[in-house]
Every structure is written in C-alpha cells, then in structure tokens.
Amino acid sequence: MLVAGGQFDFNETTSCEEYDPISQTWGGIEPLNVARILHTATLLPNGRVLVAGGGNFNDGELASAELFDPDASQ
Hints:
Helix content is 0%, strand content 43%. It is mostly beta strands. It has a three-stranded antiparallel β-sheet, with no helix packed on it. The chain has a three-stranded antiparallel β-sheet with strand order 6-7-10, with no helix packed on it. Strand 8 (55-56) and strand 9 form a beta hairpin. The protein is globular. The chain starts with a strand and ends in a 6-residue tail after the last strand.
C-alpha cells in the first residue's frame, strides 16, 4: 500500500510511505517532487502508481503527474 502526499498541520506534504503487509510496518520512501492534496493515485497494470492532479496552496490546481515505481524504492 502506498500513501503519497496529503495534508499535515494545514500544510500539504511531499511525504510518501509504503506499507509492508508481511512485516506489518510502514517505511518512508522517496518523496513526491511536488506537494499535493486532493490528487488521485492509480495502480497501473505494470505495478507502478500514477499520482496525478490535485493542488497545493502555492500553485493552486496542478496539471502534473508523477510516477511511483515500487521496484525502484527497494
């Protein structure tokens, strides 16, 4: 499971964490390039996750996307 971006203490974040169901632990991974809230995360057929859209307080609505590759984070 991947948790990417979001809001903490009224500030959007670039933080990403990945959950390992075998060890039942969370681990920090490479952060997003752009802080985003209200975005989508879509699991692609190749196992990567597309994080797209959303916004942040500095830039407003975002017309950008980022690709998370779980194989690269190990």
